[in-house]
Amino acid sequence: MCMLSSSDLPETIAIFPLPGALLLPRARLPLHIFEPRYLAMIEDCMKTPQRLIGMIQPEKGPAGGASGLSTIGCAGRLTQFSETEDGRYMITLTGVSRFRMKREIGGFTPYRRCEVDWSGFERDLGKPETDGAFNRGPFMDLLSRYFASQDLSTDWESLGDADDEMLINALSMLCPFSPEDKQALLEAPSLTTRRETIITLLEYALHSGRDAGDFMQ
């Protein structure tokens, strides 16, 4: 994959608001694209040198409808693409950097576009993060109890072999947390903070007998 530097990041990107979908730097997010406006977004994205799409959580209005966008999202580079016989796209985004939304830009595209600010997230473009305080044994025990309580299955050998960042970020993206919880995981200032947040969510789910996604609702 072509690595991007801060000078490569554009001021304006296409935005894909998708509730509950979380993308983190250096992680991969597979997506199934079928709405016409997002099919157009993918086609336009592939014409740009950076091939970036910004994943962001829509915010709920008073009546439960989407009234806006979260302040912070994460841009991913389109690194895999295939088309089905009926015209749908199967893509993979690889996380590049988080961004702060400045303003939405009007125009003639059927999808949304925003002017964004990349400052403050320079670390996202660097090497994978480590978590020096990570005590993996108790964490994996907690995770095993949570998966059992939620009737979830996984490849425990692969999880055990994963490095700190891959493990924590994969769980952040894949566990059935609420959109609000996933936003908190996205905005975590460090890998250690993100891991501590996951532990809080897992412990709450186990102690309350509820889904972790209920924690911040």
Compose a concise summary of this entry.
This protein is an alpha+beta fold and 217 residues long. The chain has helices at 36-45, 136-149, 156-161, 164-174, 179-187, 191-208, and strands at residues 12-17, 28-33, 52-56, 58-60, 66-69, 72-83, 89-105, 112-117.
The CATH class of the largest domain: Mainly Beta
CATH fold description of the largest domain:
Archaeosine Trna-guanine Transglycosylase, Chain: A, domain 4
Helix content: 25-40%
> CATH-wise, what's the superfamily of the largest domain?
LON domain-like
Along the chain, the helix and strand elements come as: EEHEEEEEEHHHHH
CA-CA gap between termini: 38 Å
Count the DSSP helices. Answer: 6
The CATH architecture term of the largest domain is Roll
Q: Outline the biggest β-sheet.
A: 5 strands, mixed, barrel
The tally of beta strands, per DSSP, is 8
The domain tally reads 2
Mean pLDDT: 89
- Strand order of the biggest β-sheet: 1-3-6-7-8
Taken as a percent bin, the fraction of beta residues is 25-35%
Catalogue the unreliable spans.
212-217
Structural class: alpha+beta
Given the C-alpha coordinates, what overall shape results? globular
Instruction: Please give the radius of gyration in angstroms.
Output: 18 Å
Pfam family, one: LON_substr_bdg
Domain Lon N-terminal: 13-206
Protein name: Lon N-terminal domain-containing protein
